[in-house]
Amino acid sequence: MAQFSRRQMIAGSLSAAALAPVCHLTPARAAAPQIGKQAPGFYRYRHGDFEVTAVTDGAIRQPLADSYVVNASRDQVNAALGAMHLERDRIFAPLTPVVINTGTRLVVIDTGLGPAAFEQSKGAGGQFHTNLRAAGIDAAAVDAVVLSHLHRDHVGGLLTKDGHPAFPNAEIFVPAADWRFWSDDGNLTRMTAGSIPEINFRNNKQVFASLKNRVTLYDADKEVQPGILSVPAYGHTPGHTAHLVTSGNAKVLLQADLTAFSATLFVANPGWHVFFDMDGAAAESSRRRIYDMAASEKLLVQGYHLPFPSLGQIERQGSAYRFVPATWNSSL
Amino acid sequence: MAQFSRRQMIAGSLSAAALAPVCHLTPARAAAPQIGKQAPGFYRYRHGDFEVTAVTDGAIRQPLADSYVVNASRDQVNAALGAMHLERDRIFAPLTPVVINTGTRLVVIDTGLGPAAFEQSKGAGGQFHTNLRAAGIDAAAVDAVVLSHLHRDHVGGLLTKDGHPAFPNAEIFVPAADWRFWSDDGNLTRMTAGSIPEINFRNNKQVFASLKNRVTLYDADKEVQPGILSVPAYGHTPGHTAHLVTSGNAKVLLQADLTAFSATLFVANPGWHVFFDMDGAAAESSRRRIYDMAASEKLLVQGYHLPFPSLGQIERQGSAYRFVPATWNSSL
User: Fold this and answer.
1) The domain that contains A214 carries what CATH number?
2) Torsion from C-alpha of B154, B155, B157, B158, nearest 10 degrees
């Protein structure tokens, strides 16, 4: 001990004498290369007897369109982005499907943008299947895929790059009201060519035509899979559905697109309507009803477009809300 | 296309007819096992020409001691924990060392609890070296380890389980004021046996006696390594030091223990003094001075005990502060 004090204090003192500058060393070894690769994008938590894994599909960074919020000006949106320390003139959209292992059933909720988007976005989006493998989950072991609604960024991961079913043994569950809307060719005739609804319409036709899985429709307020209850959240699309996942005393609300791209923007401004909400007023009404419930009951909320790992609490803040992320747990 | 509509709509309709209950299937395959393992604990970001990797050492969950905050009651602390959606009667303490690759130098800032803690905590803490490997970083390639102060949870990862230097080729940089304090045996005689300072004192003796690396002391306001400036933040310990990391226009403040275990608790209550601050008033003064600067300059802050990945912004909120986590980016 005494030896430590003397030897080290001398070493310390000697070095201290030569302190300015201290960064005078030339490394004898080659510099370690920068790695340029993000961590595998998943986050796991125990939920009663269930194991939940939030698996990111990545995130898309888009220019802010003038009409992005139909009832707020570009300046108002930019001011809100700035106040939240988010980049102005950009919409940053994370996507986070969820995998639930109930102990007897392996269930995927939504599937990301799909492999074509991976190439288009240079790997920023369409990561779901890569991250699923990194999370140790075999797509062939998935029993059910539950879709919240039939938008491309939720449906895209149903197929592989080659157009084969990405979950070969899964039954696919689709909200009945969405199915009715997206499979009625009469609706297609009322859509503007090149519009987001039209792109989604054609995408749904193509995906479900290729899909060999059994498709089952589900209604609101049903137990779609054990412990997974469908919660109507209409407006974003005609059949847009949230899910309440319960195991024992543990509850988590999968909010899907109750708030959409740059979700925290719409948490803080729940009266703002994003241009691709098919019925903005209904979407706002669903948002307020479900967030009021989540805030009152202090529910854990898992949000498809909320910042990864997309898990936290919704707090009331006047007539708006605030998202408080859960603290990351480094073990289970 | 027409074929799709018909075939699938019939399938959908047929299934829809049998909707209640839909969860009637018995899986033909064995249930997929739950995995029980968290994602590798690192998060990477570009920072000017630098690459920064936050690498978690895990997190320790401790009972809340009555005297944990010396100037607030247990009830006040529990009320604050509850308001922040944190568990009452517990302190949850994440630990997040940081690795900076400047392009020419590979620098580690703080090192976690060390391998003994990994066993004691059953893997909850002491994860740093495991996660470092998962992040693709070779400890032998590290040029410098910069310590913010000489507390056990920052020093522990300097040695392997067998007591060998964990960073065999690194020079170790220690704040001069901390070195003076922890190497003065006179200070040991004034410490209560079994107290946290005494445990840290004996731990420092043991670690630095075993360490074969060159130890260099550094003062405040020095460029300890290229682009890494030491910022005095005294109080928590006599030499406790934050670091401002600059590359081009990018700046991030590594705040170290400016707020300690359950760091967000002290962000929201900056006037509260944790019992292991060696000078609570000085620590508070450092906290307010540096947080005021961080809020005014909208600095990114990387906080050792803030929730992983421990990166975000500090906002002023009356005479207190709020931590706003940065949005996770799933690519670089």
Assistant:
1) 3.60.15.10
2) 140
ipTM of the complex: 0.91
Residue B10 lies in a domain: no
Whole-number Å distance between alpha carbons of A92 and A90 = 6
| Amino acid type, B273 | H
Contact A215 B5 (CB under 8 A): no
Residue A125 lies inside a defined structural domain of this protein = yes
The total number of structural domains that make up chain B:
1
Give the Cα separation of A286 and B176 in Å (integer): 59
- Domain carrying residue A229: 40-325
Mean pLDDT, 10 residues at a time, chain A of 332 residues:
40 40 55 96 98 98 96 98 97 97 98 94 96 98 98 97 97 98 96 94 96 96 98 98 98 97 95 97 98 98 98 98 97 94
Query: Rounded to an integer, what distance in angstroms lies between the CA atom of residue A167 and that of residue A128?
Result: 12
Residues with Cβ within 8 Å of A14's Cβ and at least 6 positions away in sequence, in order, are: none
Does A148 fall in a domain? yes
* pTM (predicted TM-score): 0.92
Are A135 and B39 inside 8 Å of each other by CB?
A: yes
The answer to whether the CB atoms of A209 and B21 lie below 8 A apart is no
Among A265, A58, A254, which Cα is nearest to A153's? A58
Angle, vertex CA A274, rays to CA A122 and CA B327, nearest 5: 50
Q: Looking at the partner chain, which of B32, B59, B226 has a beta carbon nearest the beta carbon of A106?
A: B32
Contact B215 A11 (CB under 8 A): yes
CB B15 within 8 A of CB A214: yes
- What burial class does residue A19 get, using C-beta atoms within 10 Å of its C-beta: 0-12 exposed, 13-18 middle, 19+ buried? middle
Q: Which residues pair with A292 in a beta bridge?
A: none
Which contacts (CB < 8 Å, 24+ apart) does range A277-285 have? A277/A235, A277/A236, A278/A197, A278/A235, A278/A236, A278/A237, A278/A238, A279/A234, A279/A235, A279/A238, A280/A70, A280/A71, A280/A235, A281/A235, A282/A234, A282/A235, A283/A234, A283/A235, A283/A236, A283/A240, A283/A258, A284/A235, A285/A235
The shortest CB-CB distance from A15 to any of B135, B143, B217 is to B217
Under 8 Å between Cβ of A78 and A89? yes
Average pLDDT, chain A: 92
Rounded to 10°, the helix A196-210/B2-17 angle is 80
Helical axes B196-210 vs A2-17, angle rounded to 10°: 80
Tens of pLDDT along A67-114? 999 999 999 999 999 999 999 999 999 999 999 999 999 999 999 999
Q: What is the pLDDT of residue A29?
A: 75
Look at residue A174 and tell me if it is in a domain: yes
User: For tokens 């997974």, what's the residue?
Assistant: A228
Residue with tokens 């709020």: B322
Terminal-residue alpha carbon distance, chain B: 39
Confidence of residue B313 (pLDDT cuts 50, 70, 90): very high
Q: How far apart are CA B309 and CA A320, in angstroms?
A: 27
Going by C-alpha positions, the residue among A247, A201, A270 that lies closest to residue A255 is A270
Of B242, B234, B225, the C-alpha closest to B299 is B242
For residue B72, give how far its alpha carbon lies from the nearest alpha carbon of chain A (Å): 23
Q: Which residues of A touch B139 (CB under 8 A)?
A: none
Dist CA B95 CA A162 (whole Å): 43
